[in-house]
Amino acid sequence: MDYKKLRVAIIGCGRMGQEYAKFYSVLDNTEIVAIAEYNDDRRRAVGERFGVKALYKDAEEMYQRPGEVPDLAVTVLPGKFIKDAVIASAQAGVRGVSTDKPIGARLADVDAMIDTCAERGVVFHGGNLQRARADVQEAAGWLRRGDFGEILGATVHGWGGEISGGGCQHIAVLRLLTQAEITEVVAWGKPQEALAADEDTGLIINGRFTLSTGVEVPVFGEPTPYRGVDVWTEDSLLRWDWGEEMEVYQGFDRNGRRIKSDRTFTRFAWPEYGYLASSILSFISAVENGTEMAVSAHDLRQSLEVAIAAKYSALWGSTPLSLPLQDRSLTLYPRPYRWLGGDIAAF
Ligand SMILES: NC(=O)c1ccc[n+]([C@@H]2O[C@H](COP(=O)([O-])OP(=O)(O)OC[C@H]3O[C@@H](n4cnc5c(N)ncnc54)[C@H](O)[C@@H]3O)[C@@H](O)[C@H]2O)c1
After folding, report:
1. What are 238-283's pLDDT values in tens digits?
2. Which residues constitute the domain of residue 278?
3. Cα of 16 to ligand 1 centre, how many Å?
4. What is the pTM of this model?
5. Of all atoms in ligand 1, which is nearest to the CA of residue 337?
6. Rounded CA separation 66/80 (Å)
């Protein structure tokens, strides 16, 4: 019934914003009521595509119109513009606000967004991370339930190239599978020109994370040949290998080789929309029922914080850095397309 639908505003309708709009437009319990988009032609075209008449230049203009406060403000913006739109949405009185990775560049800016949402009871969703994949969530549930025993080790593979952009994924999956926070980072970075730069483009990080459970996690900056996160217990290994369905091994054969488990993952109801769909569904459930999200803004902040710690540990001579970082002015910019948008910098 229409009056029960959550009213959604999409703020930023570029490449990724339209992916969000596609899923919100097919759900029974959501309705896109407004679009805020800088680019005039795109705003018109996207409005027509999704049948939305209330079109605005940005969040500020939208919130100046009486009656235009949606239930969900879905900000899918280049990094530079995320903070203003998130804080304006929380202050306008939305029930939930959503953003994507990386959540920002400076820790203090991210703290300000998260604090504003927390003070106002606004659910703050973290967006399209592989952590929301149905198989990753199900495997995390098995680990949490103790199906494989105590987690004894973990590794991160291929954590380089853009540690705050794409690298966000590894940290979010590692924390989920190990049910732990990263409490210390030691890192080595290359090449020197990438380490000295303000942004993460091309920076390869090798190092070690310490988890709150005491587990030490070796970090490989390049593929090993794996590209994701391995977690193991006494007799089992669970592997998330960047975009592939998770692999599960349990037990050893006569030669000491791991045996692939015959466990299968439950089929996800919306495979054509991928993990963006599972993430959005968990956001809606959090707003309506107070359940835990597959990806929260806290998860995005932890990913950024680890990337910043790794960059500065490497820059300062592989100094061990404890988390949370005391200096909230530390900053790491993502590559220009992520920070400024595809109209300004090449993808
Ligand atoms: N999670 C993922 O897998 C994933 C993948 C791609 C992009 N992203 C992230 O999503 C975000 C958007 O990426 P994209 O590929 O859609 O970029 P894009 O450049 O295609 O789209 C951004 C849109 O925002 C608009 N815009 C910019 N500032 C605005 C403002 N203040 N108010 C309203 N509209 C504004 C631009 O005109 C553009 O249409 C970035 O933060 C990026 O890092 C995440």
Report:
1. 999 998 999 999 999 999 999 999 999 999 989 999 999 999 999 9
2. 2-130+274-296
3. 6
4. 0.97
5. 19
6. 27
Distance 331 CA to ligand 1 centre (A): 20
Domain identity same for 72 and 152: no
Pocket test for ligand 1, best of 61, 75, 76 (most atoms within 8 A of CB): 76
Contact in structure between 105 and 81 (CB atoms under 8 Å) = no
Residue found by looking up tokens 């759900």 in the block: 27
Mean pLDDT of 46-68: 94
| 333 belongs to a structural domain | no
For residues 298 and 88, what is the distance between their CA atoms, to the nearest angstrom?
19
Nearest residue (CA) to ligand 1, atom 41: 78
pLDDT for position 257: 98
**Gap from CA of 88 to ligand 1 centroid (Å):** 17
Q: Is residue 341 part of a domain?
A: no
Show the CA angle centred on residue 202, arms to residues 197 and 207, nearest 5°.
90
pLDDT more than 90, % of the chain = 96
Number of domains observed in the structure of the chain = 2
Ligand 1 lined by 275 (C-beta under 6 Å): no
Q: Domain check: are 263 and 286 in the same one?
A: no
279 and 249, same domain (yes or no): no
